[in-house]
Every structure is written in C-alpha cells, then in structure tokens.
C-alpha cells in the first residue's frame, strides 16, 4: 500500500497531501470503530474483571509468536482493491483504502503486539477501544506519508521495508513486554 501512496506525487504535492489526509482520516475512523466494537463486546462479556489475566496471557502468546523464526501474519492476507469503477474520484479511493488498511481488516498485520492491543480493547471498555483503535489506525497509515515526502520510487519503498524488518521485529518484542507490563500495572 505504501507503494500505491507513493504514486500520489504524480498529481503534485498539494493534491497528494490532501489525499493522504483523507487516507489517514479513514484509517483513524475505521480503527476507532473496530476498537470501540471490541470494547463493547468485552464489556458485554464482563471481561474487565479479568483484565490483568487476559493481558498477560495475550502478551505471552504475542511474545512467543514474535520470537519464532517466522512470525505469523495476523489479519487477512490480501490488500485493498486496485481497480475501481471508471471515474471514481481519487479522494474516495484513498479514504476507503485508509479505512480498510487502518482497521487492519484488509491487510496482513506482521507485528504480534497487535494481540496486546486487542486484549486491552476487549478489557478496557468502549472509550479505550475507540481511542486506541483510532491511534492504531492513524499510526499504521501515517507511515504512508514517508515515501511521498522522501520522493521514494516504489522500488526504494519496498527496499526500506526489507531493511527495517529486523529492527521492527525487535521493537515488536519490546513493545509487547513494555506495553503488557504497563497495561497490567495500570489495570490494578
């Protein structure tokens, strides 16, 4: 997807930034919606009283999966549609792409720290679910601006993904440990 957003520069930087903002808004709104739904589902099931145990269990599962030689891909293993009906405005395309990608529904999630976020949403209620979902969606898609600002061609963008993969794996494990610990301590 970052490759697709990198192609925005063909219409000029101002247009590209506007489309990126719509993309980010779609990502934040969809993330908030799914996070809020997770919080509501958890509240209906009474998971809040089990919060520390659920978070510890999910953090241990996430860490175990993260330390595997080949971590699993969470989420759906496909990307957003590339072909749209003729005449579909680019603004609509990037807004919908943002919603699909920011929510994590239409793309693989390579970092198992997502399981800790899901545990927090399920046990934290609707408000925490909304806020954390919006932050998750926005942060996932905010990175799509980097290729545009750096004027990276699609090949260089894909090269960056490969170069940064080892650091991202280490940060994922650190986030699981730190985030899980903070969430357990804050929940007491």
Characterise the protein shown here:
The termini are far apart. The chain is built from seven helices and no strands. The chain is mostly helical and 188 residues long. Helix 3 runs antiparallel to helix 7 (154-186).
Task: Tell me the helix content.
Answer: over 70%
If you compute it from the alpha carbons, what radius of gyration comes out, rounded to the nearest whole angstrom? Answer: 18 Å
**Regions with pLDDT < 50 over 5+ consecutive residues?**
none
Backbone shape = globular
Average pLDDT for all residues: 82
Structural class: mainly alpha
What portion of the residues fall into strands of 2 or more residues?
A: under 5%
Biggest sheet, open or closed, and with what strands and sense? none
Q: What string gives the helices and strands in order?
A: HHHHHHH
Termini, distance in Å?
A: 40 Å
Quick one: how many beta strands? Answer: 0
Q: What's the domain count?
A: 1
Helical stretch count? 7
Tags for this model:
188 residues; 0% strand; globular
Summarize the structure.
It contains seven helices and no strands. It is mainly α.
Question: What secondary-structure arrangement, pairings included, does this model have?
Answer:
Blueprint: H1 2-6, H2 13-45, H3 51-66, H4 90-102, H5 114-142, H6 145-149, H7 154-186
Helix pairs in contact: 2-4, 2-5, 3-5, 3-7, 4-5
